[in-house]
User: What shape does this take?
Amino acid sequence: MTTDLISVLLVDDHAVVREGYRRLLELNSDVEVCGEAADAALAYQRFCALRPDVVVMDVSLPGASGIEAMRRMLAREPDARVLIFSVHEDSIFVRRALDAGALGYVTKASAPDVLVEAVRSVARRAGYLSPDISQALAMRNAFNEGPPGRQLSAREFEVLRLLVQGYTLPSIAEKLGLSQKTVANHQSVIRQKFGADNGVQLAQMASRLGLQFTGSASPA
Assistant: This one.
């Protein structure tokens, strides 16, 4: 990273949203948006090609999530600096992101200057949470309430997210680079952990995590 300019890769599936954030960030003389991506696969390609100082990543992307894209980036470059920028405010998403290696988490409801401050902080390898997220985590800890689904592994959570989006087991296997048998095993373990006997019950449990079903039928 240069001392004067922070290069940023913007990852969001909405072009209008990316344009707005690009303009916001580039109002600051020390920040430059070096590239954009609309999905996890392109984000990884741009990351490898551009080597940005900071990746500003949405969680909800078509296919593989931003968290999965971040894992791939960190597997290639352990020092990658990723800031999650998402509409999701539930602590389960924050925990998943931080556990997977994100250096910061900012909600899209935050004031514009919060994003800029977060980018600068993550560029220095310092952690950053937007005020609303910090408050939510503090309240969760104060009441000692474990969020539903925390018992899922990171991979199981990703499989569940794709299941409730209506993806089939073969499609999930392809997106995550796993065998269909492995994905089926993950699905079985998820059901056991949730005590879900069928797809409807699984979708109901997923809804408690903020994962809304978007497919044409309940998860198998």
User: Anything to note?
Assistant: The CA atoms of residues 162 and 172 lie 7 Å apart. The radius of gyration is 18 Å.
